[in-house]
Each structure stands twice: as C-alpha cells, then as structure tokens.
Design brief:
The chain is an alpha/beta fold. It has one domain: Rossmann fold (3-Layer(aba) Sandwich). About 30% of the residues lie in helices and about 30% in strands. It is built from three helices and five strands. Strands 1, 2, 3, 4 and 5 form a five-stranded mixed sheet that branches. The longest helix has 13 residues. It is globular. The structure holds flavin mononucleotide (FMN). The site of flavin mononucleotide has 14 residues, from helix 1 and strand 3.
Length: about 100
C-alpha cells in the first residue's frame, strides 16, 4: 500500500502531526511526506491512501487547502482512500479559571 501525506503549516503544528502520521503508516508500505507546495493535486502519482492536513483558520479550512481539495475531487481522487485532518487552537476552561485576576 502506497501512501502520501500532504500538509500545510504556518507554525509547524500540522507538520508535526503529518510526520507522526507518515511514521505510523510506513509500517504498511512506502510513504511520501510532502508540503502542499511540493505536490500538484492533479498529479499525485499512484497511491492507495492519501492524507491531507492543514491548520484550522477562521473556523474552517485554510485558504490554500480548499483549492487543493477542490482540484483533487475533480481530477485525481477517483478510487483512492483519503483522510483529512487539521490542527487547531485548544482552550482549556480549567486553565482559564486559574488565570490571575
Ligand atoms: C489566521 C489564523 C486563524 C486561526 N483561526 C483559528 C480558528 O478559527 N479556530 C481554531 O481553533 N484555531 C485557529 N487558529 C489556530 C491554528 O489553527 C492553530 O494554531 C494550528 O495548530 C496552526 O497550525 P500550524 O502550526 O500548522 O500552522 C488560527 C490561526 C491563525 C494564524
């Protein structure tokens, strides 16, 4: 099974998760780990499993991930298993409660 992990990152969080995903799936066959700029969505090569990850921005997909996914849908995703993931801000209520007044 050949896998491809594509990620977009601004601060490195999504890259860290993408690296962990690539590390996990390499047990099942060859895996490529590429930044969004390194792979054309209409020419992914012959892969069985695709992961696409990006940061949540403004309550949704980042501006660059959306067109990438749109082009996948119309061009090269037929017959491929695909997984999308994101990283986002996490606010812990308990931590906030501890903030000094
Ligand atoms: C412009 C901008 C908008 C963001 N909007 C959201 C948001 O709406 N919700 C959220 O949970 N996190 C939001 N975040 C936080 C990022 O999703 C989070 O820090 C993410 O892990 C960054 O990933 P990266 O390090 O791969 O760039 C935003 C960050 C930026 C810079």
């Amino acid at each position: 099974m050949e896998s491809l992990v594509v990620y977009e990152t601004k601060f490195g969080n999504t890259k860290t998760v993408a690296e962990a995903v690539a590390d996990a799936v390499q047990a099942y066959g060859p895996v490529r780990l590429l930044g969004l700029d390194q792979v054309p969505p209409d020419d992914l090569g012959t892969i069985d499993l695709l992961f696409v990850g990006g940061p949540t921005q403004a309550h949704g997909m980042s501006a660059r991930i959306r067109p990438f996914l749109d082009r996948l849908e119309t061009r090269s995703a037929t017959g491929m298993v695909a997984v999308a993931f994101d990283t986002r801000f996490r606010c812990r209520q308990r931590s906030l409660a501890r903030l000094p007044e």
